[in-house]
Structure formats: C-alpha cells, structure tokens
Design goal:
heterotrimer; A mainly alpha (303); B alpha/beta (486); C mainly alpha (357); B: 486 residues; six-stranded mixed beta sheet; 34% helix; C: 357 residues; mainly alpha; globular
Chain lengths: 303, 486, 357
C-alpha cells in the first residue's frame, strides 16, 4: 500500500519536475512562461499521436519534445524579440494549445469513441535494489523517464551555478542591460533557455500519455504546467527544492487513487482539488518571491 | 590611439551627437566634459560598442571597431565604467568579477578572487568579505569593483563616466592618483565628468561637448574653470538671485527622533530636524545613506518605527515631496499631463467631488500650471512621455507648488538637468522660500547645496547632523559625509 | 483615437483570418466553406442572431472582469472559476426563492452570484496584497478548485431529487430571468451586461478610484509614492473583478440553464482575455468585441456540422487574435503603422509595457 503510494508519488512528480526544471532555466534568464501548460499539453498529444500511428515509442517521445519546442518557439518570438507582456503571451499559448490539440484530435481520431491506446513505457527493474522491501518498489521500479528527470536535477544545478554559461544566463535574468554591456547576448541566452525548456516540458507531457495514461483525454495536463510554475517558487529557484516540491504535488495527486482505493466516503472531488488547493496554500504560507531573479517578467529590448 | 570620427546618433527626434570627432592618445588622461545631456555618455557607449551610431566610426590605432558590439570592443581592449555601476546585485562580488578578464576562460571563482586580490592590492583597494553580495556594498565599493573588473581586461583604453559622483572628497584624491598611475602605464584614460575642478586637476587635454557637438579642444594647462564653463553652456553660469534671507522663527516642519528599520538594518537613526519658514536647508550625503527612506517617511509612504513628523498645523497636506527618479517615480509617463498633476493627493482632492473625478477641472488646473511655469507642451492631454526632461522636471516642481504647501522636500531634483534648467529650479525654490515657504533640499551634489542653501546638514548611515559655518568647506563636509563625526 | 483603435481591431481580425485560412488549407478544409458556415451559424437567421446575443452575454461579464483587473496590472486569469462560483451560489439559492416576487428573486440571485465571485477573486487579491502570492498562479489554481466544488455540488448536496443525472435542483420560476421575444433566449441579462459595462467605464474614467486603479496599473512605484493604497486596491479590484464574473455566472443560471451542471463554463474566462484585449480594455468596446466572439462561438457549432472542422478551432482563433494584438503594440509595428499612414499610435499599450511584477 505504502509502496504503491510512494511509487505513484514519484511517478506523478516526474512530468511536473521536468517542466519545472525547464521553467527554472527560463526564469533564471528572466522570463516567466505561463505557456508552460500549453507546451505540456501539446507534448502529451503529439507524443501519443505519433507513437500510436508509428508504433514507435521513441518517435513518440521525440514528437512530444518537438511539440513543446514548437510552442516555446512561438513564445520566444513574442516575448524576446517582440518583448511583449509575458503573462498575456503565455496565456494565449495555453488557449492555442487547447485549440490545436482539440482540432487535431478530432482530425486524427474522429468522434468514433474508439479507444486508442498505446503500450506504456515499461518500468525497469534494477536488480537487487528493486527487491528492497517497500523502498525498493517505491524508488527503484520506475520507467527510464523518471530516472532521467531526477538525474537532470543535479545537472541543472551544476549548469546554473558552476559553469560560465550558467553565470551568463543568470546575469541575463538579473540585469539584462548590464549583461548586454558586458558583451553577453541576452536574446540568445533567453532563446536557448526557452528552447531547452520546450524540450523538457514536451517530454513531461509525453510522460503523461506514454508512461502514465497510455491514451489521450481532453486537457490531460490538467494544470500540471501551472503547478510547475508554483513548484519553482516553492523550491526557491533551487533544483533540489524543485524536486522536493514536485514530489509533494505528486503525492497530492497520488493520494486521489490511494484513498479512493481505501473506499472512503470522502467525495473524490476533494482529492482532485487537493493538488491545486495545496499549491495555493503552500504558496500563501511561504510568501514572497524575494528569491526570484530581479528582472523576472520584465520585457527587455536591446537598445 | 583612440579615435571617434564623425559620430552621429539620434534617439527618435533628438539629435544626441552631431558629427563628433574625438581623439585620445596613450599615456594621457583626456577629460570629456559637458553638461548633463551634452552627449558624453552616448559617445562613450558608442565607443564601447553598447550603442550603434547612425553615422561615423570608432577606431583604435587606425582600425575601425565593429559598431554595436560590446564584445568586439572588449576584445579590442576598450573597457568602460558606467555612471551607476552595472553590477549584478544578487550575485557575489566574485561572480561579478568573473565577467571580467580574470582567470581567462576557466570558471573558477577562487582563481578570480585571488587574481582580483593581487590587482586590488597593487591599486590600494580593499576587497569585500568573501562571497558577499553586491546588495550589501556601498556605492564607493561598487565603483571600485567595477573599475577592477574593467582593469581585469587589461584594457588599452579605459573610459570612466562620472566615477567620482559617489565618492567622498577623501576617496576622490586616492582615485585621481589611481588614474595618474594608470596613465603612467601607457593606457588611454578618458574621464567623463561635469566637474571642472577635477578635470583641471588631473587631465592632460580636455574636450568640451555641448548639445551633441564638440565646441572646444584644449590642453588643461591652457585654460581655466570659467572659460570651460562658458564653453560648456555657451554663456556665464546664471547667478542665483536670492532674496534677502528673512528666515523667521516659525517652525514649518519638525522631524523628531525618527528611526526606521528595514530588513534588519537601521536605515534611519534618531533623525531630528527642524525646518523654519523662509529657509532653504540642504541635506548633503552620498546616495544610499537613508535619504530615500527619509523622503518616503516624509511623503507618508513609510511609517517610522518611532519618532514623528509634524508640520505647523500638523497637516500633511502642507508638505509636498518631489522624489528623485522623476521618470520612474515622480511621473507616470504613459499618462496625460493632467493625470500626472492629479496624482498629487491635495490636487486630486480639489478636483474630485464625492468620488467623481472632474476631468474638466483637472484639465484647467493643468493648463494653468503649464502657463504659469512656462512648460512647453501642446496641452493637458499630452502624454508625459512626450515632454523633454527639463519640461518634465518643471511639471514636477509645478505640481509640488500648486497645492500651496508650506514645506517642499526635494530629492536630487537637478539630476539630468542642464545648468540653465537647474538654475531655474533653484530660482523657483528660492522664490518659494522668500515668500515664506520652507525647503529641504536633499542632494548628493555638494556644489549644488553650497550654492543654494543657507543651512547645511549632513546625513551618513541614517544619522543627521547640523553643520556650522566653519565646516562649510568641501574637505570638512567630505569628511562628515564619509561618516567621520568626531 | 476610436477610429485607430477600430482599425487596429479590424486589422488584427483580418490577419488572424488569413493565418486561419492557411491552417485550414493545411487541414484539408476549405477556408471559404468554413467562413461561410461560421457566418451562417452566427447571423444566418433570426434564431442564430438571438443565440449570438445570448452567447455573447457571459463574455461581456468576464470581459469586464478582465478589463478592471488588467487595467490595474493585476493578471486575473481566474474569471472562469469566479464565474463558476457565482453560478454555484445562484444555483444553490435559486431553488429557495419560490415564494419571492420575481424582481426580488432575480435581484437576490444576482447578488448571490456577485458575492460568490467576489469571494473567489477577493481571496486571490488578499493573497497578492498580503502574502505576495503571484495572482496568475493563484487565480488559475482557484479555477481548478472551483470546478471541483461545482462537481461535488451537483453530485452531492445540491443534486436534483431524482438523482438521475448530475445536475442541481432547478431554480424557482420566480428566479428565471425575463426573456424577450420567446421562444428566443434573449433575456434581460444582456441589458444588465450593458448597464454594467457603462458602470465600469464610468468607474475607470470618471472616478477617483478608477484613476487610482489605472495609475497603479501603469506605474506601481509612482502610485505607491503618491499615497495610492496599493494593498487595499488590489483586494478591491480582484474582488470587483470576481463579482463581475460571478454575476455572469448567475445570469447564466437564471436565464439559460436554470440549474447547475458539471460544466458551467466552456472557457469564457480565457476567451475574455481576447475579448478585452481587442477592445483595448475599454468597457464599452468590450460589448462590441464580446458580440464578435459570441458570433464566432455560435457559428463554430454550425461550422463543425457543415465542414467537419472541430469547434475548438475558435480557441485557435482567440489565441491568434491575442498574439497578433500583442505584436501590434510593439514599437516596431507602431512605426510601420505610422509609416503606412496610420495615425500616430498614442501610447505603448498598457498590456505591452507593464512589467509583470
């Protein structure tokens, strides 16, 4: 029981973590990406579609990443080159994603109601590690994407704080005019952050359809992208903080199934609402955004 | 040898630089002087590759530099230090210096720190404690760090834009010595300043810019301050006509023991000050010693932890504040002139009735102010952004006077104004005082205060102190500003 | 000024249309056919026309909500949730109003909607003012919570007597909104919406509070300096914004659905962003732009039947319109516009230039 719950938590945390890590890079460079939800949704949809029609999971994953990349590219043009309001642009892309996935869903799958399912990405057994009671099943019996996501945590931290590239990226988010005067290309750094985030978020979306649900339903991302935004704040813009916050939300989502299985009389809607209410409560408790990059959200135009 | 040929630059409708030619040689300190808005900073930014000129080139030893590329300029050995240090506040000083030329391409903060230490010792600088962030550093330290970063590129050309503005007089002497030492190393030093005394003290040659054009080139020994001043503004500096000082005994503003803490620091420490009707008192100090917080307390935006502020009638409406940072805080550039005028609460109260805003009345009020203060603008419905800097300042001052206050508190209001504009503002304030008002002029410009104020106070680290007549020399005041209160 | 705003709106719609035509061709559908079907579905006959009005009504309410909050640089992305909670309050109290005279019942139901929405929005306002919680995230989270609250209500406490279907007990007859020209569904709601639009316009441009709101939206620092009470205004603005959306929800229940269902909003809260932006946040303009988007929504059903293109296409249109409008307000495009002979664009739009923080 406990094992299933812990395992679920980590599994559910994975798409959020992937998106949040991408968002961390983006925010450190100075941009706030509300369109993260749209990128995840498109990633989920196109991963499934390609995997279904091609029969190849790898192609599906690739398609998911490409879809996320495409959405973020549109955002990049809007908020970097045209320097428009980031919140509104991001929201537009969320609406765009809903529309695009809806239209293409009907086009590819019709209204037949036929169940189109793909085989889930298999979980890996890690030999003796997996056999450890409780923790083994919880931690060491996941599909490869989970391990990949958590591996990215220290990698992101190293990139941001121990490399020159990371320093430059943070400079772009701290004070773009100063970065510019030092010869850094703020536009290019921000583009790079958004593109990488697009790949990561698209992968997170692909996880939802290829490693979790095995199919696509309308709005399958269900706000996980937005939760990722909160995770960045709660994690105080530090990779391990993000990982912890993601697991917290993964647990809230896993709770739905756990408690339902227990057969309580508590209405299921409470569990569905729990992750979002929890996000809000924790954000309220933790308070300010004082740890955020100074120039976050401010459009920057090169002189 | 550094040369700029035929440089032209436009910002919208404004011609900032008009076919400017400029040259500086190795082993010389060349002062580029001019008033605010003459184009000095723009010229420096073009040479440093931060701005692209509309015409002309910058050349180093005869080779044209790539326009608009800061990286190319740095690569060619041109380093520039800004007027307000361009450092990353939240990062540590080591990280900030890592953007310089220390430790080559390796990213090792320890190596950066040790190389920086070597260089700093050679220059007589002290470095901040290890891994401390810029946020906590004083302005003087920040200037030094930025100079250090510039020097780490071993630049052949070093340009400094008004570096001494934030230095107290004691630090100034050390700084000028540093420049002489750098000159001795064969570098080209370009010093941008509007302070004639400094330019004459340390420069070899001087170029004067006025209105985007070069109007004079001379050797430092061949000229003097009044000649330079005349070149800078095209005429003798206007003399302030101050009415006979009839400072009464009525206390217009009493600040008693105001203390304020922020983020755990004490930013205002038992500040006490009594301002009398008819006087212009100056509060001198380097930016960042509590002036902004004091201004916010007086404006009613911040509440002090203890102490009080009282007017004669204990009515806040009789005190108006003109904040520094006119474009960011004083005005809302996206709004019309009349809307900016009614930002001031007393004026808004005059133009609203039971919650309804009387636009016609507000427009009239604004039109009156435009006429009375000769503000050049098409009308009350014009956007504030369309006004020139000088006219915006006129509007800010006009708005402050319009509500008929007894006390005006002005913070760094002459920043970015040319001499004529500044003189006009001072004259307006002097007239206000002569008519019985009280003025508290808070400024980091000591010259401005010495010229206009009858009474001088000094602020340092949140504490305020009166000065008496025999402390009114630049040196003495400098020490007080630096915090040496014995 | 009005003319140039109109021209800008028309240009944005035309450009969106062009892009859409391209997308449709790629999908193998006929652009001409689609546009015809849209127009037919929106205006083709009397019923279509009245239905367009009906579908536009909730967009006016949510559009006004957006206008009020965005004008203060408060990014309320939660109009959907606020509308839902308003509907919920209306649907909960509606069945109790049997004994009330009609005008009173309608008034009560609208007030219930306003209070529900105000509570929902005001909470986020309070969180922003006192806990520095990013209102984008908080309002979005509240959308999800509202949806679950509604779902639980119609499955649980409010479920209608026969328990056959997840919907609530129908509201009392007396709480039904007055309908004009039955059997069309055009009702008093549109009049209430227009009245509120006028009220919002007056608020924004003719009152002291409106001035403070706009100043805060344009430049928070300056507003703070001049003593504008930012914290209090934040809560007020988001509560008011929520109330407007909530009234929209109540009107839906009172006039159209007469009861609560699992899903009460097909995304009006997001669509409202496009509606508000195209009208440059001007409440009066929002009435017109809501009619436009209402027409699109109405026509999309017909389009789906006739051309087999998913009705979700209108969301793509909404998104394109927003993005085009954002792009239109950048200096580069403004210069292009002036060069083409358009009137000098007055100011950078509030949307483009206001920083997020």
């Amino acid at each position: 029981m406990l094992e299933a719950f812990l395992s679920s938590s980590i599994g559910m945390a994975t798409p959020i973590l992937l998106a949040a890590l991408g968002e961390l890079l983006v925010e450190e460079s100075g941009i706030i990406n509300i369109g993260i939800e749209g990128a995840m949704l498109c990633g989920a949809f196109f991963a499934l579609t390609v995997a279904y029609f091609s029969g190849s999971t790898i192609l599906g994953l690739g398609a998911g990443m490409a879809a996320g990349l495409a959405i973020n590219t549109i955002l990049a043009v809007l908020v970097i080159n045209l320097a428009v309001n980031q919140v509104v642009a991001g929201t537009a892309l969320d609406i765009f994603a809903l529309g695009v996935t809806g239209v293409f869903y009907r086009k590819f799958f019709g209204i037949t109601g036929k169940a189109f399912i793909v085989k889930l990405i298999p979980r890996l057994r890690l030999g003796r590690l997996t056999d450890i009671p409780i923790l083994g099943g919880a931690l060491f019996h996941h599909n490869m994407l989970v391990y990949l996501a958590f591996a990215f945590v220290p990698i992101t931290g190293y990139l941001l704080w121990r490399t020159r590239y990371g320093l430059s990226l943070r400079a772009a988010g701290e004070r773009p005019e100063a970065a510019d005067s030092l010869g850094l290309d703020v536009y290019r750094l921000r583009w790079q952050a958004l593109l990488v985030a697009g790949l990561l978020t698209g992968l997170g979306g692909a996880y939802l359809t290829l490693a979790y649900a095995g199919t696509f339903v309308e709005n399958i991302s269900a706000g996980r992208g937005y939760v990722a935004l909160a995770v960045v704040i709660l994690g105080r813009w530090k990779p391990w903080g993000l990982a912890a916050a993601s697991i917290l939300f993964g647990a809230a989502m896993a709770l739905q199934f756990g408690l339902q299985a227990l057969g309580t009389t508590i209405p299921y809607q409470i569990f569905l609402a729990l992750p979002y209410a929890l996000t809000l409560a924790v954000l309220a408790a933790v308070g300010g955004q004082a740890a955020s990059p100074s120039a976050l959200g401010e459009p920057y135009r090169r002189l | 040898m550094l040369a700029a040929r035929n440089i032209t630059k436009r910002f919208g409708a404004t011609l900032a630089l008009d076919r400017v030619d400029f040259e500086a040689h190795p082993g010389e300190i060349h002062a580029l002087i001019g008033e605010n808005g003459a184009g000095k900073t723009t010229l420096m930014n073009i040479i440093a590759g931060r701005l692209r000129p509309d015409g002309g080139d910058a050349l180093l030893d005869g080779f044209a530099l790539r326009a608009g590329s800061a990286r190319a300029a740095l690569g060619s050995g041109i380093a520039a230090v800004n007027q307000s240090p361009m450092l990353f506040e939240r990062m540590t000083w080591e990280e900030n210096l890592a953007f310089g030329g220390f430790a080559g391409d390796r990213f090792e903060l320890a190596a950066v720190a040790s190389e920086a230490r070597t260089l700093a010792e050679g220059l007589g600088f002290a470095l901040p404690p290890a891994r401390s962030t810029i946020e906590e550093r004083s302005m003087a330290e920040r200037v030094r760090l930025e100079v250090l970063r510039a020097l780490s590129f071993t630049p052949r050309v070093l340009m400094l834009d008004e570096p001494t503005g934030v230095l107290g007089p004691s630090e100034l002497a050390a700084f000028l010595d540093l420049l002489r030492r750098l000159r001795a190393e064969g570098r080209v030093i370009v010093l941008i300043t509007h302070k004639l005394a400094e330019a004459l003290a340390v420069a070899d040659r001087i170029t004067v810019l006025r209105g985007g054009r070069v109007v004079a080139r001379t050797g430092a020994t061949q000229t003097n301050a009044s000649e330079l001043a005349r070149a800078m503004i095209g005429d003798l500096p206007p003399k302030l006509t101050v009415a006979p000082k009839s400072v009464g005994n009525t206390i217009a503003l009493a600040i008693r023991n105001v203390t304020l803490h922020r983020d755990g620091h004490r930013v205002l420490d038992q500040v006490s000050l009594a301002l009398r009707a008819g006087e212009i008192a100056g509060l001198a100090g380097v930016d960042g010693n509590g002036q902004s917080e004091l201004v916010e307390v007086l404006a009613g935006v911040l509440r002090p932890d203890s102490g009080e502020v009282r007017g004669t009638e204990m009515d806040r409406a009789e005190l108006t504040v003109i904040p520094e940072n006119r474009d960011l805080v004083g005005l809302i550039l996206d709004m019309t002139l009349w809307e900016n005028v009614v930002l001031s609460r007393p004026l808004r109260e005059q133009t609203t009735h039971r919650g309804w805003l009387d636009r016609a009345r507000a427009r009239d009020l604004c039109a009156q102010l435009l006429r009375r203060f000769q503000i050049r603008a098409p009308g009350p419905e014009t956007l504030a952004a369309a006004l020139s800097g000088g006219n915006r300042q006129r509007l800010a001052v006009a708005r402050a006077l319009a509500s008929g206050p007894k006390v005006i508190v002005a913070h760094n209001i002459c920043r970015g104004l040319d001499l004529a504009g500044a003189a006009e503002v001072h004259q307006t304030l002097a007239n206000f005082a002569a008519a019985g008002g009280a003025v508290l002029l808070i400024s980091s410009d000591l010259d401005e205060l010495l010229e206009t104020c009858g009474r001088l106070l000094v602020i340092s680290a949140g504490r305020v102190r009166e000065t008496d007549l025999n402390e009114r020399s630049a040196e003495k005041l400098g020490m007080l500003i630096a915090g040496n209160w014995t | 000024m009005i003319l140039s705003s109109l021209a800008r709106a028309v240009a944005a719609i035309l450009l969106a249309g062009v892009i859409l035509a391209g997308v449709l061709l790629a999908l193998g559908a006929s652009p001409a056919g689609v546009f015809m079907a849209l127009a037919q579905g929106a205006f083709g006959n009397w019923y279509a026309l009245t239905d367009t009005v009906v579908r536009s009504t909730p967009l006016i309410f949510t559009g006004l909500a957006i206008s009020i909050s965005f004008s203060g640089a408060l990014w309320n992305i939660g109009a959907d949730g606020q509308l839902v909670v308003g509907a919920l309050a209306a649907g909960a109290i509606g069945p109790q109003l049997e004994a009330c005279p009609k005008p009173l019942a309608i008034a009560i139901i609208l007030i219930a909607g306003a209070l529900g929405g105000a509570a929902w929005g005001g909470t986020c306002g309070w969180l922003r003012a006192h806990r520095d919680t990013n209102e984008v995230i908080s309002t979005i989270m509240m959308n999800f919570v509202a949806a679950q609250l509604l779902s639980w209500s119609v499955h649980g406490p409010l479920i209608e007597a026969s328990r056959a279907y997840p919907s609530s007990t129908p509201i009392a007859e007396s709480a039904h909104m007055y309908v004009f020209f039955p059997p069309s569904r055009v009702n008093l709601g549109i009049v209430i919406a227009i009245v509120l639009a006028i009220a919002c316009w007056l608020l924004l441009f003719k009152t002291d509070v409106g001035f403070q709101l706009r100043a805060m939206g344009r430049n928070r620092r300056a507003a703070t300096f001049f003593g504008i009470p930012i914290a209090r205004l934040t809560v007020t603005i988001l509560a008011l914004s929520g109330a407007l959306a909530g009234i929209g929800g109540a009107v839906q229940v009172s006039a159209i659905t007469h009861r609560l269902y699992e899903k009460m909003s097909p995304g009006w809260g997001f669509e409202a962003i496009a509606v508000a932006l195209i009208a440059r946040l001007n409440p009066l303009g929002i009435v017109a732009s809501a009619l436009l988007f209402g027409a699109l929504d109405n026509g999309s059903q017909a389009m789906q039947r006739a051309q087999g293109v998913s009705a979700e296409l209108v969301q793509v249109i909404q998104a394109l319109v927003i993005m085009i409008l954002l792009a239109f307000d950048t200096p580069a495009v403004a210069q292009l516009w002036s060069a083409l002979g358009g009137s000098k664009v007055a100011a950078p739009s509030a949307i483009s230039e206001i920083p997020n923080a």
